[in-house]
Each structure stands twice: as C-alpha cells, then as structure tokens.
Protein 1
Amino acid sequence: MSRHAPLQFLAITVLLGAVACTTGGEGPATEAAAPEGPRHLKVYFEKDMFGGWPANHGIWSWGDEILVGFGKGHYKEAGLSHHIDREKPEIAMLARSLDGGETWVLEDPGAQGYLLTEGGYLHGVTRPGVTLPELREPEGGVDFTHPDFALTVRTNSIHAGIGRTFYSYDRGRTWDGPFRLPSFGAPGIAPRTDYIVDSKDQCTLFITAAKSNEREGRPLCVRTTDGGKTWTRLAWIGPEPAEGFSIMPASVRLSESEILVTVRMRDDSRRWIGAYLSSDDGASWEYLGEAVPDTGVGNPPAMIQLEDGRICLVYGYRAEPFSMRARLSNDHGRTWSEDIVLRDDGASRDIGYPRAVQRPDGKIVTVYYFTDEASGPERYIGATIWTPPSP
C-alpha cells in the first residue's frame, strides 16, 4: 500500500455479487455499497480575505452541534509567509454547525464584544470602533462540567506573550473574560486552546511557554483545582530544545493516570510531531518517539480518541503534495499507522492547523485552513468529513 494512498483506497471494498434472494430461489443481485470517501466543504471563504488557524482558537462539540474558532483577516501576497495583511485587523470568528459539519453559519463574537484581544495575532492592529475588554485576574467559580461549557485560551505573541482565557456556558454564544493566565516561571507564554476537563473544579491545560531566551518555545502542563482561580504548573513536557522549538501540544486522557500529548517539533534540519506519555496524571513525561516523522516545514497536530479506543492524529503536510493527513494508533500512541491522505490538492504550504471531532455516527469532522488552485489564492476554512478505516 502506498504511504500516501487516499483514504477511500485504505478501506476494504467487499462485493457481494449475485447473491440470490430466497423467494423462489431467485431474486435481484445485490452489492455492498463502496465505502464513502472523504468529502470536503468550505466553512468560510470570502474573496480577498484570509481565514486561518483553527488550532489556535479551538473546536467544541455537543452531539451534532459543532463550534469552531478561526482568525479572519485580509488576503495579501507574502511569499513564503502567511498570506495575511499584517497592517489590517485580524478578527476572531466562530462558525457553527447544527448538522454534524454538513452546513455552517458564521458568528462574529467581536461584534458583541466577546473574544476580543489586541486584534491581530502577531501584529496588534486593533479592530476599528471596538473597545477592548479589560484583562481581569482570575475569579474562580468556573464549572468545567457544565453541559454547554466551552473554553478558549489565547495569546498576543508566539514568543513571550500574555495568556488569556475565556469561557462560555451557552455553547459559545456569549463569553466571559478575558482572564489572565500566569507565566509559570517562563519569560512569557503563547497558549492555544487545548484542555481536558477533569471535574467540576479541575481542568488541565496544555500550553506553550517561551524558552529561556524568550523565543518559541516549549510545552508544559498546568492545572486548576479551584474553578480557575489559580493555575499551577504540573510539569514541563520534555526538555527545553537547544535549537528550534517544541510547541502547540494536543492532548488525550487515556485513563485517570495516563495522558498522551503530541507536539509540533523543529530543529535545524527537520520538522516532525513527537509524542509524550504521562503515567502519573501530568506530573512527569516520557518521550515515546515520532508520531509523524516529517511534516514538511511544520504543522501542529490535532488529536482525538475515537469511540473504539484508537487515537486519531490529523495534521497539515507542508511540502509537496500539500495535503491534509491523518494517522491512527491502536496502542495509545506508541506506534502509528501510515499516513491516511484526506486531500492532497493544496496550492501552497500555507495550510493546516487542524482541529477535529468525532460525530455520533462515527464520522470524523476535521476543520483546517486551506488554499487550492480551483478556489483561488485566498485562504479559507475547510472541513473534511471522513470515516476512519476499520481496526
């Protein structure tokens, strides 16, 4: 089997040709339906605009209701960099689906004064006519187990920034925040949204902090046990990289004591996704090896545990053929399948940053940003709905 075989060819197609009905010994021939291949949808596309980075914002689901965040900016040709105009505002947006990702409706939380920070993720251009909310100290009292709960974690720098949390009790329609996150002894932090709800008062975050030289970055595990009033560092996830970085963790709780984390890693010569395991509920971490040995010029993982217990990892491959890919593990991240190519029609390496959920019917909805020749140069938010191959 080719390493880059499309998903639809990884599943086994069984033909039940000419199976007779029992009525009179004769009947119409029947065939088993071929497995459905991945379907690609546009969550957000707008002429002359840029949609990007769901991994920075987060994804949440309640049955067939799915909410995803992303950044919206103005498109600008930028060579090998992100094709967004850094002199104009970048706006935090939401997209909501009520039918398992088949259709989407855009929501602008900033228009109601929610999810506002210093504007652009890197450039700090504020949104015209909008007053930024005050950054508040944590107040506690958050019920992490509320049935309609959502949490997002943001920053104002990929290097040594300030961390902020917002939370919602109505599936992201309104938000409270921003609340300051401590720097946990680092020169600054650059958190994105990745968390595990442990109980009503306890939540574990997996974030990135600046290295001692104030460059990006290294991952760590932090926790609150008092409803978000205080946050404590449990452990660094791996050593501080001497060169390059280890950033953007994605986590899955395997048991009361075991947590699996994958991280985007880079050194002078290559880019990969590494896997770490904690067997003591986040207090220490063991490096398991490479979950993905090559990601092109680098991309963060999205990771979920499937209903059948397997771990699913999705990432953007930022080399030709520019593509969205997945891998599966049936031994809690110790070994991984070959790549499952969800799509390989990317027109640029400026793609990826996925998030994923599994629908009640077992299909996976993966959301990411993308560009393809047919759609034009704009970066858009795409979704791929696909069925994982059988164990």
Protein 2
Amino acid sequence: MNTHFVSPPRLLGLGTAVPPHELPQDMVKQVASRILGARYPEFERLSKSFENSGIDRRYSVVPFEWFEQAKDWPARTKAYLEGATSLFIAAARQALDASGLRPDEIDTIVTVSSTGIATPTLEARAMQQMGFRSDVRRVPVFGLGCAGGVTGLSLAARLAAVAPGSKVLLVCVEACTLAFRADRLQKADIIATVLFGDGAAAACISTDGRQGAILGEGQEHTWPDTLPIMGWEVDADGFGVVFDRSIPAFVKDNFAAAVETALERMGLDLGSLRRMICHPGGAKVVDAIESALHLEQGVLDHERSVLRDYGNMSAPTALFVLQRVAESGLKGNMMLAALGPGFTASMLPIRFE
C-alpha cells in the first residue's frame, strides 16, 4: 500500500516595509494640536494620550503637510494607490528574498488591505514591476482591519495546503494615516491620530520546504452583538474610524475564553505554548491581553517594541511582531493572535523548530 505524505505549510520567509515619511510622536502631537486644538474642546484633555501611547514614532505614505488641508475621497485614494503599491512591492521583495524565491515562482497572491479601495487591486498594479506570472492567482481581501495579518496568513496557509508544492505570497498593506479627519471631531478620531501608522508585511508560504515555521489551521471567534466596537464609517470625505472605549475591558473579560476554545480545537493548551504573539493594537490592549491570559506583566515585549517603533499599522503589525519573535530564535509551539472588526479574534498556531 502506497502512502503519500504531504508536508505541512511552512513560513518560508517574511518581509516588512514602512513608507519614507517618519512621524515622531512629539511632532504628531504638535501638528494635531495646531489643526485640532482650537476646534475640539476636549483635545487638551485627550492629548495626554500621545505621551501614554507607548509610541515613539510612526511612518506615513504622505508628509506632515498633507494633513494640513481637508482631503476628499479622490485625494485620499490617490495617496493610497501610490503609497500602498510602493509598500506592496517593497515588502513582497523582502519576503521573496528571505525565501529564496523569484516572483515568477509565485502561484497565488493573497493581498490584505482595509485602508483604501483599489480596483484593479494592489497585486495587479504591482504585477509588471514585480515580474509575477500572467497566470498567477489573485486573492484580494478587504475589511479585516487589525485582524488581517493573522487571518491573511491563515488563508495563505490553507491555500498552500490544498495545492501541495505551490508557492503562496501574502502581502498585508495599510495606509492608516490617510484616514486622518479634522472635520468629524470625535474622540475616536483623536485616538486614531495618536495610534495609527502605515506599513506593509509579506510572507511566502509553501508545503515545499523542510525549513521554516510550521503553520497550523487558523481559528476565529466572532462575538455576537459587537459590530459597533471597531470598524469604519464611510461618508463623502472618506473613512471615519470606529473605536469603542470598551475595547481593553472587553478584551480583559472575553479574550481568554476565545483563546482557550481555539486551543482546544487545535489540540493545544495555553500551558503548552512557548509564547503568544499578539497584534499590539495599543498599550492598553497589550496590558489587557496579558491580564486576560494571566501572563507575566511585560512578557509581550516584542509587541510593545513594535508599537513603540511603528505605532498601530493595522493588519501588518502582527507580522512585524512575528518577524521579531522569529529573529529572537525562540523555538516551540506559539499562537499568533489579533483582534479586528466583527468583533473578531483571529488565531493561528505556529511552531518554530
């Protein structure tokens, strides 16, 4: 009797990229104060969030001057198409180089982005410059928000598993800063100004490999009646962020049960994990995750360092953390996790050997 063993999908290489415009947090506060301070009565009180955010700097696809004047959909879309396409190419090339693959070896491209609308989508816009094959399969995904990096990697692993030997490229690209709004004057817009940065992360996945972290089967948990917690409101001028102030408390009260259920389905338990690898949505969210899972305070050090260096870039951020964990040389079973609109927890088991 002949048996054919199919290797599990593996993470062959990671790449990350940020745009050229650095936004030091103290300068962001100064600019935001000049634009918003006189118009928004609560700005002075909320401005303390800049110092308490745990963020030193962020990066943007546009310079500070861009934010000084009101922007409509066409202006935001133009900046997104230019900036996000460049980020796509930079992150994808890094991941390919790290994997030892050529662009024409890629069979499927999964593109995750929720901060702009592009049709044709980003991978099509980058195709000629990248050198992808004309028969490459394109899988663009919109609307996952901060959970997009984990869900996108889970999707890429599934696509690699059902077509053994194929090469899948995941690229997560977000230009969060383009959602800056000076007209709505809501608390959520101030918090977004405190937290958001732009960036991209890419990964190559295949069953055709003997090295690289093993990717398991991802799990998701969507809580009922939580649609208003996180997302976008869409109006004539662009996206308007939705952030509920209850997010840290909600995570503290509900995240552990979702993690435990997912681990049970994976045949794991929290005690068997060397590490949780989490999306750092904000300093308070990182604290809430540690509290919910009864982790030692401060153990999510790579999460805090990524937040400090880049801010919350939405979908790519979890993969920035994953890259730092991989570079640290830590081995064993881990779980990548992120929270996003839905309100949904996305989780993916990963084993470094």
Protein 3
Amino acid sequence: MSKRITMSVPDHQKLTVAEFLDAVLGEEGRFELVDGVAYAMAGAKQGHNVIGSNVQTALVPAGKKSGCRTTSSDTGVQTGPNTVRYPDIVVDCGPPNPSATTASQPTIIVELSSPGTAVFDHGAKLREYQSIPSVQVVVQIESEIVPVKAHRRFGADWIEETYESLEDSIELPALATALSLREVYDTLEVRPRVRLQVIREQHPTR
C-alpha cells in the first residue's frame, strides 16, 4: 500500500533521486521514489517490526566480521535512474560512509511482506533488486505465515529457494553465516502455509 507524498511537491512534478533524498531527509514515515514519483508507504504491524528487529540482530555481528553494515529501512537502495527503494533490511558491503543515504554496495536485501503487499514485493521489487550487480541474495519473509523465500544469484541466473520449517536455515556466504527461521520468527506465533489436499472420490464398481 502506498500513496503520493504531499510535501510541497506538485503531483505533476517528477523528482530526481537527489531531489527526493533531500525532500525526505528528516521526514517521519517511509517513502519511496518510483520512476520519479514519490510515494508514502503504509505503516507496519507489530509482527513485521519484530521480524525486522530479529533479522537485524542476527545479521549485525556477522556483517561486522565481513566488513559490512546491516541497516534498517532508513537506508535506500537505488534500483533505477529515478527509483529508490527502502528494503526492510539492507546489508551494505561498500566503503563506509557515515553521511550516505543510500547503500553503495547492497549485497543482501530482506523484504518483509504482509498478505496485502506480497504480490507486489515478490514481483516488481524483486526484479529491481536482481538488476543490481552487487546483490547476491534477496530474502522475502512473510510476516504472518511461514514460508520464507530466498532468491540467490547463481552466475548469470537466479535460483529460488523455499524454506518452510523453523528448523531450516538460509545460507548467506557473503557474511559467512546462516539465518535460521527460528531466529526470524523468535517470540512470534506464526502458522504454516495452508496446503491443499486433493481428495479423490471413490466411485463404486458397477
């Protein structure tokens, strides 16, 4: 869910990345720039925020050892000439720059989805992240149900992995670590994905 930003920017006016980053600096809430149009992002439920905190807590130590920084949704990722996304978690392995507002070398991206945003997050955003040469893994986490999906760069291609058990772990070679689903959903009660069961009707023999 998103809506246009109303902060003194006419609806017909498109923004450059520099203008957008300057406009949202210090603003409350989350915003994204899509093809030059600025949008305000909807708020999140508690489960979404808990998962974000859990993932960041799990990745920060390994990131430090690898010379990377694990940041929250305040770090932008430029996915196109006039598009800036704000993933829930970004692991930036570029040179440190305390004044940076976007990741210089995003390596691992984590997006948390709810039932209302899953289709969009799993489609358009995923393709944008995959177009960035430095991105190695995109992790998509459902905030209310398991499973978790990891899209992993494999040469010139991408492979999709699905994890459906709290005992599963997602390997993250860039940080020489793994992220377990038990860490992801710690303190939350989540339900497994509903599986359809095919029942064959038995016809009596004539």
Protein 4
Amino acid sequence: MDTITRQESILTALSVEDFGQVRALLGDMHPSEIADLVESLPPKDRETLWDLIEPALEGDVLSEVQDAVRAGLLEQMQPQEVAEVTKDLETDDAADILQDLPEDVINSVLASMNAQNRERLASILSYPEDQAGGLMNIDVVSIRADVSLDVVSRYLRKLGELPEQTDNLMVVDRENRYLGVLPLADILTKKPHTSVGENMIREAGITADTPRYEVARIFEQRDWFSAGVVDEEGKLLGRITVDDVVDVIQKEAEQTVRSMAGLGEDDMFAPVLTTAKRRSIWLGINLMTAFLASWVIGRFSDTIEQLVALAVLMPIVASMGGVAGSQTLTIAIRGIALGQISKSNSRILMMKEVAVGVFNGLIWAAVVAVVAGLWFGDSSIGYIIGLAMIINLVIAALAGALIPLTLKRFGVDPAIAGGVILTTVTDVVGFMTFLGLATLFLVN
C-alpha cells in the first residue's frame, strides 16, 4: 500500500471511528512515515491519531516530525510523559525534542529523568541546536592509539553492543584529545598484533561551535559517515553521523524554499490568524515595491496614452528581466550556501553573469523586436522594446549576483529578501527603460 492510499485509509477509518483499523495500519508503518502522516492531518484528526500511536513509538515519531508540529504535540504532554518517551532515544534526537520546549518545562523534564539521561542530555543542550555541539551524539566508543587490534576486539566483545550508526571507533590520547578514527573493518582485516595507531586514519575533529550548514558541507566533501566533535582544546565530546547530516540538509533545503517565498517554519494546518500574520509581513513589503513600480509607470502616463502598444508590451520587458535575474540569484544563493563564493571570485561571477545577460538579451531582443514590429506594424516599437530588453536583462543579471552578496555582507539571509529586492529592480528598470526610450524616440 502506497503512502497516499494508506493516508486515505487512515482518514476514512478515523472518520468512522474505526480505531482498531487505524492501529492495524499504523503497525505496518515506520516512525518517519507516521510522522509524515501526522503532519498531513488537520489538528482534530492529528490529536486523535496521536492517542492511537503506540507509546513505544511516540519518541521516534516526535524526533521525525516538523518542529512546528512537534511543538504542538509537546504542548499536550506532561513533563513526565516527555521524559518517558525520550528515555530510549539517541541523545541527539532527545535533545532536538527538548529544545522545542520552554526552558522551565525543559528543567521539569530533566528533573523527571534519571541521573544518567539527565547528564547526557544536559551536555548537548548546552550548545545551540544549529551548531555541531547541538547535533552530536555523546554515545561514543573511544579507544587509545597504543593498544593492539586484538585488545580492541576483545574489548568490543566484552562491551556487547555498539551505538547505532557506528562505522568507526574514535581514537583518543590519555587526555581524551581526538586523534582520528579506526574503521571497524580494520579490526577484522588487519593483523591482530598491530596497534591502533598503525592502522588509524588521522583527522581533525569538527569543533562544537561549527555551524550546521558547514558540518553538512564537510560531510559532503569528505564522504564521511561519521565524525568526531571536539571542544576548543581538541578533546572528544561526541560524534555526528550521516543521518544527522541528512536531516540538516533536508531542513536547510526546506528553509531555503520557504524563505524565498517569505515564509517561516509553519505547520500546514496552523491556525488561520497565525499563518496570516506570518505571511502578511512579506505581502506588505511586496505591496510597497509594487507601488514603486506603479509610480514609475505613472510618470509616463502621457506616453502610454499616446501609444497603447506600450501598455501591452511593457510587462514582457519586466517579466523577462525577472526570470533572468532569478536564474542568477538562485546560482548566487546556492554558491553562498555551499561556501563557494568569496571576495576572490565574486567579481568573476558577476562578469560572467553580465555576459550571459548580454548574450541572452541579444537573442531574445531580436525575437521580441520582430514580433512586436509585425504585431503593431511599427518597426520603431520593435527597436525600442529590443533595446529595453537588452538593458533590463543585463541589469537583472548584475542584480541577481550583486544582491545576495550585499545582503550576506550585512548579515541578511539572501533567500529571504533577495527575491523581493530583485523583483523591484527588474520591474522598475524594465518599465523605466522601455517607457523612457519610447518617450525619447516615439512621442512627439
């Protein structure tokens, strides 16, 4: 049964209060699939479904759902309940859940835990959730470099089990300073009498204050499955695994998409007033920029009255500039997010994008000029719109590269404000250029 069919079956069962059927369907689902289902339900059905989920799965489901939805679910739970559902989770997953709670509730939850879980979580909660320290799991198997592989093998057998997602053992010195990793495969394939130091891979750990997007970039570049997290003295604090990085990548991608639309992190079924309030800010900003573009058009009202064709054609100039600018803006934002754009290559990028704008401007200006000239039987209009389009596409390309770099320099997320500013630039320049040229050359 595919996800959509299962969702429809559960909704049908909920509507007729066939809770036995709902429990049966949930029993075949992975916690991440249940989390997706919870997010897709309206609040009333969501509450009913949550009561039908097996208590043993509640912690795993909470760790998978969107932050805004998780916050709503946690509001319905007592501190003791939260402590109970998080006690068997990976430390980093439990920390993610607690970070969505008010500080006084976090303290109540920690007080409800046993001393071991409380100490494990407190060490992660001391770091912001958007840094490596907030992503790490402190469940780590560490070994010394001066012991033999045979000793390590016997130690692991005595240990009995390994933390999930363990592909390497963390190698440290006597002061717990991180030295590198020993792949588990080496314990089986290398000579037992050789030392860990002879077989280990030496590498620097990720410092606890490293931003999460930088952690994701490092993992992608080095094809890591896990990495040690260290403090400012190089001492091992914990580890980050690839599943944590996948979550970071997914959240960053979702945040970028939402930001480009002027949206924050929001529950799909959040209250109307809450959602409207969050969106109204950017609608207001967009309205102000629209008035600016309208003001520009108004300055050429006499010209438009004499040549109605201008009113028909001017949206083409602004629209083409907007698309060209958005293409460059997307490339620039991606480059900034991946750390690929710096002062050394930003000028080269702008020159390249301007060249692309000139090239595309010449091609499409010629096409539009011919169409407009034939359409209105006036070659002069074709020349004017063609020239205006070349200018606007070049300006759009330059703005698409320059705007995100400028916003980044002032500490503003380019994905949030870049699109609004770019639209204003391409509209104003497009209308000003087209109508200004028409006023100079076509109107007596």
